[in-house]
Amino acid sequence: MQLSSDPQGGVLSRAGDAASLGRLRQRVEDHADALVAAFYDALLADEEARSFLHHSVVQERLSPSLRRWLVDLFAPGADLAGAAFAARQQKIGEVHARIKIPMHLVMAGAAVLKGRLADALASDPAAFDLLRLAGERIDHALRLMSQSYEKGASNRARLDEAYRLFSLDQDIHFERESQRAGLMEWSQKTLFRILASGGVEGAGALSASPFGLWIRHRADFLFDGSPHLTRLNAAMERIDAELLPRFTPGAASSDLAGPLEALEAAVDEVAFLLNEMFQGLAGMEGGRDPLTRALNRRFLSSILSREIGFANANHTPLSVLLLDVDHFKRINDTHGHPIGDEVLRQVAEAVTENVRPSDFVFRYGGEEFLIVLVETSLRQAATIAERMRQALATKAITASGLEPFHVTVSIGAAEHGGHPDENYLVKEADDALYRAKQNGRNRVEIA
Amino acid sequence: MQLSSDPQGGVLSRAGDAASLGRLRQRVEDHADALVAAFYDALLADEEARSFLHHSVVQERLSPSLRRWLVDLFAPGADLAGAAFAARQQKIGEVHARIKIPMHLVMAGAAVLKGRLADALASDPAAFDLLRLAGERIDHALRLMSQSYEKGASNRARLDEAYRLFSLDQDIHFERESQRAGLMEWSQKTLFRILASGGVEGAGALSASPFGLWIRHRADFLFDGSPHLTRLNAAMERIDAELLPRFTPGAASSDLAGPLEALEAAVDEVAFLLNEMFQGLAGMEGGRDPLTRALNRRFLSSILSREIGFANANHTPLSVLLLDVDHFKRINDTHGHPIGDEVLRQVAEAVTENVRPSDFVFRYGGEEFLIVLVETSLRQAATIAERMRQALATKAITASGLEPFHVTVSIGAAEHGGHPDENYLVKEADDALYRAKQNGRNRVEIA
């Protein structure tokens, strides 16, 4: 956004006022050390920031950089609309994305800077102009930083996800057995030590064993945010910090019974949690619903927001259907879940047969499907929905042990009307579906 | 970050001054319409923003929301440190992430708001205080927005990537044949029309055919940013806009020769580009280097930055080795590339045998490998590197048609010293590797 050339009087309107700028620069230089210190005091008071910023790095590297940045921002010759200035700010944004200093923390630090600077300027006769000028320049730099930060952070998130999916794609069964073996190997080595001497010297902590290192450095990618992993880490920590120290060399074997029982229980818990986590991986990551082969709802937002962008950019229509199987609960209750599943499978089949290869069919809820119809007006969408409704009403559902039977569906249709939020479009289709249900089911309503 | 409770005099220090706040609110209300208009004028002047913001949506929905937000920001009872205020700003950030209004555009709009507001305040006797107060409040809201925006945008990027990889994972060969058939089907249908009447009425545009819709709505996920896709879209557009209109009903068959030749060439180009893009997919997305089975370098940043975060948070050591095969070019030149490949494969094997399951081995460059050693000090890293060097120096490389021979490697080792930028650590290992080369090769140097 070229705000500096905004014909209506741009953001950098005061940038050319050399006298104010010189004065401001003097103030900034006078207070630079205090300003920089206040910035990093505020950042290091934050838990999130502390996790990646060492005091020593702040002292040696970051503080001098921030000081230079600040003074240069008000340099007399600085061309804030120029390419060199933009490149410098964007480079900072890139680095922040790489080292994961989130933009909102930088903004928090900048707010501290502005506050301190305002204090320093308050008594100046031209305080208002100087404050305005300072704010404009700092904001301009932050905006440029943010632009490249967003890009960098998004690339990083994509790569993280790609690596996580890649890890999932490895031979999971092999990995499970290999880690189970690692745990048992540590355990039996530790037991041999205890049996030999009563103590555990030389056996080493579980968290430092190959198993422990794998858990600490590989498992969090694989089991991203699993509560089991938190419990496993806690159990491992308890083994190392509490249970192992109970074994002392030369202890009588009668004294070992209690500690051994506690250790066995803790190792069993680790093994159990490990197994649970691996079990949880199976099938979890499918892009399609395994039952109906419809797309997994988690991709809805990616696809719909992209299609909304396409429709806005190309001025093409876009519609959404929300389809619900009528009285599905009754089918489930009467015939049982396996028959209910069969109904869903055959409904999904009929839906898919009635759309084009460029459309998208999602399993949206238990018995709900959401269909994204690209380059399709509301009128065309209603026609397609009606075709689907009829196809289903006349299709005989076959399931083993039952006579062929029929199910009906209700459908709500809505067309994208320019609103950039995809939830809005889905809500409109949902409202139409609600009316179809209210008006007697087995029918199509449009938004 | 709880800046509002910052004991050193926080960012919201002036928030309690009721008189200033009332006065500021009055100013904002007086100018609210103009401020809001200036904000959206600036946004809609930006090409990026225009692609997702319709004028009608701005008029009907966004402008009234912004007006309310702005006035509420200076409401006398507003508790900016309170949970309700934060929740509201964070909600806005979430929506922006969903509808892809990047934070830097919001910051650009806010800069326009501040500029206009400053103009309106300039003549006020308390202009300095009011400007400071306005800036503080707007910045505070932006920071809260940014916090949830970053989270939302990162989740969205992860999902987009997951969907892209899922698309790649589908049956690519089936998809290729299916789209090739779609193109040919359109082409032959169009030719039948031309042969029957000389014109193409009823055949429809290629871009509106099932093939065209697939290209427009599926291909960009699959072939993310491929230059072939840009060319294919251009060819498709040319067919629809230039070539088809040349066919007019009742034209003499002699007049058809030129247009037919052009159409055939264009369809051939589309088919060629489609095929090229599908070819390009094969093997491109591997997480591992197909030759050496080492990790693909594109995951280095994800892994190393995560390990640096782990080391900082847990105060554990972390080291990196950079290993280069000595005189590799000579091997390639003397024996040819297949032998060179065999050397790389066997070097990678020896490297992998000398690390633990929790370490990471990357193919870093042509004949370079980068090894991330978790929870490993520089001293331990040097020992591991020396073991690798010896293992390789004594290992006989076997390749068909050649006597077993030996290769040596040079290794640079570096330990993470607290700097949050992973590039810094890699650079240190690289410098050490350079010294190992300078000092005669077949040796380990530490940073």
UniProtKB/TrEMBL annotation, chains A, B:
SUPFAM superfamilies: Globin-like (SSF46458), Nucleotide cyclase (SSF55073). GO terms for cellular component: plasma membrane. It holds the Pfam family GGDEF. Its cofactor is heme. It catalyses: 2 GTP = 3',3'-c-di-GMP + 2 diphosphate. Keywords: Heme, Iron, Magnesium, Metal-binding, Nucleotide-binding, Transferase. Residues 316-447 form the GGDEF domain. InterPro entries: Diguanylate_Cyclase, DosC_2nd, DosC_GS, GGDEF_dom, Globin-like_sf, Globin-sensor_dom, Globin/Proto, Nucleotide_cyclase. Its EC number is 2.7.7.65. Transmembrane segments: none annotated. It comes from the Bacteria. GO terms for biological process: cell adhesion involved in single-species biofilm formation; negative regulation of bacterial-type flagellum-dependent cell motility. One of its GO terms (molecular function) is nucleotide binding. This is Diguanylate cyclase DosC. It comes from Brevundimonas naejangsanensis.
